[in-house]
Design a protein that fits this description.
Layout (H helix, E strand, L loop, with lengths): L8 E7 L7 E6 L8 E2 L2 E3 L6 H13 L6 E13 L2 E12 L14 E7 L8 H9 L7 H11 L2 E6 L13
Parallel strand pairs: 1-6
Antiparallel strand pairs: 1-4, 2-3, 2-7, 5-6, 5-8
Helix pairs in contact: 2-3
Amino acid sequence: MTDRFSSILPVALMVLPGPDGTMTFVHQIKGPYADNWLLPGGGVEPGESAEAAAIRETAEETGCHVAACSAFAVYEFTGTWAQGSYHLMLFGFLADRAYRVPAGFDGHNVGAVRQSRIGEVPLHSTDLQILTDAGVASYSDGTIARALAADGITMTAHRVSGTTRVPVPPAS
């Protein structure tokens, strides 16, 4: 039996500002980055756009219903974990404004949800690059490279300058 990480997995995440200069993090309980504080996100379902997946996963994990967001980068991660190799294709989105996690919200498939200032939670090595690219942090290339190497992760970033929606022609 194969698991969802045995082939390239498309995932989407949301950089979600919170109140008073905080960011929203979730404590991951499954997958290669289990037991880490990460940005909210998860797998893109068949027929779902990456943006829709980021919005859906954010609502499921944090209770925040993002009205609008913008793509800022696409990342490729490769590494190994207890179950073997993984290859993630991650689409990064930035929420349009700050959102507050509803009091008492218990996120789906996460151990906890926390809105904290950057540096108040131990960041996963991949989040250093993502938060920098989203313009909400500024980690040096050397710091990012050392953190990724320590975790055995190869990460390639492809920055997005804008999104163009291609119109779908009417059915004939």
